[in-house]
């Protein structure tokens, strides 16, 4: 999709950002520049609701929870184009390419109560309500909307472990709160295996449910309290009478006013005609209802919604203060919203007593040889190892320590003794390929993050890289590649395993483990076994050593050699040995020519109509999916940095905008946003687990990074305007840089990186000169 760079006149920005833009960052903080509705339309899959950095709660409106055959567009529960809201739930993924969660759905109701959500196209057919975006307010840590069918003003905010609600009902109308434990994002008949709902003597509502969704056998419990006494309550078991998902029968409703068990539970809490807003606070736990109560007792004291909202805003101001950016209101909105999205995951997945649920479904304590730590989950590792986690290493090395400890703990708890692949709330989904927790840990260690047991970390990294049943690692270790007649997507797996092996070798080398380093450095060269010099593409081989035929480099989808991509996209995936890839392709000139052909190809987006994740096309380059994310920076390695600068501007101009559909593809737990942050700053980690960043060009005139030890690293660019899109000279602390690369040590030491921008590439520049 194509966007203008500056879209400040759009209705969306007028409604959502006017107040934020007007506020001075000196008084309001950077949170005022965040617009959480960016990415809530199209394929962005972000949610607009309330959360805090890496928080356990993501309290957000759900416009739909369709069955699993149609759930892709609603992976975050909300689509900007939908006309109704069916309720507010407490757990959401941000920008994922798969769906689940949507736990503890509540809906305030004024007047008559309906027990099913109804049809969005038929107002009044259920408890869902129409709404207008003109009534929405979406801020970092706060969301509000008017439910027009009820006349209710709904407000949400969040803390570390608590979701806070405030509902203002129309005067004189009876107020109710409906709690529905049946629906989930990625829902389907039979997903809820068991649930319990209980009203305790003090009025606390607790419950748990066991679901069989993306992560099988996931248990989630909650505790809920109200600021006003109930005038009545009814608990329903709809298992025998459940039109919501096709259950039929005589029904079994209101069997017990205070305790229900079953697969289809609901409750309606009555409050009469209220003279003040109804406030609700909710805590969750993956361990037990008692732990949820403990979370509520610890973090949910008192009743002061506005104070909790201020605390959420302050938490975001503190987090976003890691970078001070100058720029236009639109640039600041895009930058700080991207940084906001990058700070959403992984999420806290541990209770106040230190307990969490692990991949073995057992309860564990977040404690290791270094003592107590915070356990985090929600790991889309195939995505976030590329830029989102390296951004945390740069800006929040303290958080990286707990992230690594959490990954190692998950391996310790795993029945297989290996690191997570795609995990949330402690449980494994086995989604995507590679063992990309390895480069997350290696990148942190190589760049100086400590505070975790490096020997234990290396042990589980090796275990993950040698676990033969996973993704046909047995053949990979034996043959030097994954054979396509034994394992699908074999070319992608060979390439990604080879990179992961290289990253493991870097950590082993830094630890002085030379034998381990040598073993995995040898394996890191296995990418060459996927290279076919005859066609000039990476391909999958059969177990007999022959390349699979027939071969079509444009083909993508089920049954192909590749994961969410084709040969045009995956043939560039050798981040650990770009010079080797340049040589394999015939030298710098041929390498550059093929990169140009990739970006300049005429490709009909309909070519990928059956592959949901391949979006944001510029030729064969697909910015909406991660295998392409490093490609624009590869010109640097072939001696043509001005082409990197051209391509980056092309991507920034067409793939991002300050609108609901302003992300070209799934944000993937902050990876798309982290790419934006790095690129706006002028550099990018093409090869995580090295200490080198490839330099592009900045897209903000000035940025100040506040790093550890009170160090600051400043990036400036001048003249900064549309007439000067190229870099004429780069200086680091006044000294010219001769190559388009920057070391991590240069950043964390503090200093100033200055870009002198020019109208045209340097006169007479050639690839040989730049090299």
UniProtKB/TrEMBL annotation:
Residues 291-757 form the Glycosyl hydrolase family domain. InterPro entries: 6-hairpin_glycosidase_sf, GH-type_carb-bd, GH92_a_mannosidase_put, GH92_N, Glyco_hydro_92, PNGase. GO terms for molecular function: hydrolase activity, acting on glycosyl bonds. The keyword Transferase does not apply. Its EC number is 3.2.1.-. Residues 1-22 form the signal peptide. Gene3D superfamilies: 2.70.98.10, alpha-1,2-mannosidase, alpha-1,2-mannosidases domains, GH92 mannosidase domain. Keywords: Glycosidase, Hydrolase, Signal. It holds the Pfam family Glyco_hydro_92. Residues 34-285 form the Glycosyl hydrolase family 92 N-terminal domain. NCBIfam families: aman2_put. This is GH92 family glycosyl hydrolase. It comes from Dyella lutea. The lineage of its organism: Bacteria, Pseudomonadati, Pseudomonadota, Gammaproteobacteria, Lysobacterales.
């Amino acid at each position: 999709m194509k966007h203008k760079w500056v879209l400040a006149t759009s209705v969306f920005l007028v409604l959502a950002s006017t107040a934020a833009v007007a506020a001075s960052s000196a008084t309001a903080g950077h949170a005022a520049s965040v617009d959480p509705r960016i990415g809530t339309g199209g394929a962005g899959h972000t949610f607009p609701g309330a959360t805090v950095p890496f928080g356990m709660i993501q309290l957000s409106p759900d416009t739909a929870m369709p069955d699993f055959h149609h759930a892709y567009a609603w992976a975050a529960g909300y689509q900007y184009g939908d006309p109704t809201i069916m309720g507010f739930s407490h757990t959401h993924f941000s920008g994922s390419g798969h769906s689940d969660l949507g736990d503890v759905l509540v809906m305030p109701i004024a007047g008559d109560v309906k027990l099913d959500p109804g049809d969005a196209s038929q107002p009044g057919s259920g408890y869902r309500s129409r709404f207008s975006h003109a009534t929405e307010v979406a801020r970092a840590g706060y969301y509000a909307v008017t439910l027009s069918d009820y006349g209710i003003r709904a407000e949400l905010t969040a803390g570390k472990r608590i979701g806070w609600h405030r509902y203002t009902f129309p005067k004189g109308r009876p107020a109710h709160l409906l709690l529905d434990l049946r629906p989930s994002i990625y829902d389907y008949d039979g997903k809820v295996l068991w649930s319990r709902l209980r009203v305790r003597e003090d009025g606390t509502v607790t419950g748990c449910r066991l679901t069989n969704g993306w992560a099988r056998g996931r248990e989630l419990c909650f505790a809920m309290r109200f600021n006003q006494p109930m005038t009545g309550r009814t608990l329903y078991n709809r298992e025998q009478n459940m039109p919501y998902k096709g259950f039929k029968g005589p029904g079994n409703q209101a069997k017990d006013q205070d305790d229900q068990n079953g697969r289809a539970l609901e409750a309606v809490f009555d409050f009469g005609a209220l003279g003040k807003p109804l406030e609700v606070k909710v805590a969750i736990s993956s361990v037990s209802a008692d732990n949820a109560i403990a979370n509520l007792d610890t973090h949910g004291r008192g009743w002061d919604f506005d104070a909790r909202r201020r605390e959420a805003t302050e938490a975001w101001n503190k987090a976003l203060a890691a970078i001070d950016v100058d720029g236009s209101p639109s640039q600041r909105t895009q930058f700080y919203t991207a940084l906001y999205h990058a700070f959403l995951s992984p999420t806290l997945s541990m209770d106040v007593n230190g307990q969490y649920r692990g991949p073995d479904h057992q309860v564990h304590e977040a404690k290791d040889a270094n003592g107590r730590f915070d356990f985090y989950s929600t790991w889309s590792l195939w995505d976030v190892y590329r830029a989102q986690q390296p951004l945390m290493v740069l800006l929040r090395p303290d958080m990286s320590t707990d992230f690594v400890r959490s990954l190692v703990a998950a391996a310790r708890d795993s029945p297989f003794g290996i690191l997570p692949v795609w995990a949330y709330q402690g449980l494994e989904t086995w989604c995507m390929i590679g063992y990309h927790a390895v480069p997350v840990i290696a990148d942190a260690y190589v760049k100086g993050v400590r505070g975790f047991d490096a020997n234990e970390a290396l042990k589980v990294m090796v275990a993950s890289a040698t676990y033969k049943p996973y993704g046909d690692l047995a053949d990979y270790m034996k043959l030097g590649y994954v054979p396509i007649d034994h394992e699908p997507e074999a070319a992608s797996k060979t390439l990604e395993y080879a990179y992961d092996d290289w990253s493991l070798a870097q950590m082993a080398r830094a630890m002085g483990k030379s034998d381990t380093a040598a073993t995995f450095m040898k394996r890191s060269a296995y990418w060459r076994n996927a290279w076919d010099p005859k066609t000039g593409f990476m391909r999958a081989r059969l177990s007999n050593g022959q390349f699979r035929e027939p071969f079509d480099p444009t083909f993508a989808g089920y049954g192909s050699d590749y994961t969410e991509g084709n040969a045009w996209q995956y043939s560039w995936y050798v981040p650990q040995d770009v010079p080797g890839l340049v040589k394999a392709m015939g030298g710098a000139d041929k390498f550059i020519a093929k990169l140009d052909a990739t970006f300049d190809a005429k490709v009909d987006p309909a070519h990928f109509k059956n592959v949901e994740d391949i979006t944001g096309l510029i030729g064969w380059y697909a910015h909406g999916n991660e295998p392409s994310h490093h490609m624009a920076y590869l010109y640097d390695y072939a001696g043509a940095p001005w082409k990197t600068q051209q391509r980056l501007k092309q991507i920034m101009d067409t793939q991002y905008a300050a609108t609901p559909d302003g992300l070209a593809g799934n944000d993937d737990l902050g990876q798309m946003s982290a790419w934006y942050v790095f690129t706006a700053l002028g550099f990018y980690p093409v090869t995580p687990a090295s200490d080198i960043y490839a330099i592009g060009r900045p897209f903000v005139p000035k940025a100040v990074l506040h790093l550890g030890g009170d160090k600051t690293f400043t990036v400036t660019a001048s003249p900064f305007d549309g007439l000067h899109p190229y870099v004429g000279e780069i200086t680091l602390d006044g000294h010219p840089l001769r190559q388009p690369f920057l070391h991590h040590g240069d950043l964390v030491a503090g200093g100033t990186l200055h870009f002198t921008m020019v109208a045209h590439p340097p006169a007479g520049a050639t690839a040989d000169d730049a090299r």
